[in-house]
Amino acid sequence: MPGSLIFCPVVCKKTKLHENDLREFVITLLRNVIVIPNFLISEASLKKAYQICKPIDEKDTVYVASAIECNATLITNDKTLYKGPKEQDFARVKLLEDA
Hints:
This protein is mainly alpha-helical. The protein has five helices and two strands, in the order H-H-H-H-E-H-E. It has a two-stranded parallel ribbon with strand order 1-2. Helix 5 links the parallel strand 1 and strand 2.
């Protein structure tokens, strides 16, 4: 797989992971990630998420809308995305380190 891990040296250096450990982490992560196409998120969920995110960061609307639509917990490493929705009475947010 030449070129499949072009960012591997950079990521390995920043994370202090060996290439095999990084590869294993990515495989495990991708096995557990659910991708939700935008067209599956209802207008109601998008509107509710926008109202939650507007005072914080509007670019996070789709993430919050996905959690609303799926009745799921949003897991993030972004402290602002963690705190902001909680301040707007949206409690289904966890920090990655606490998940």
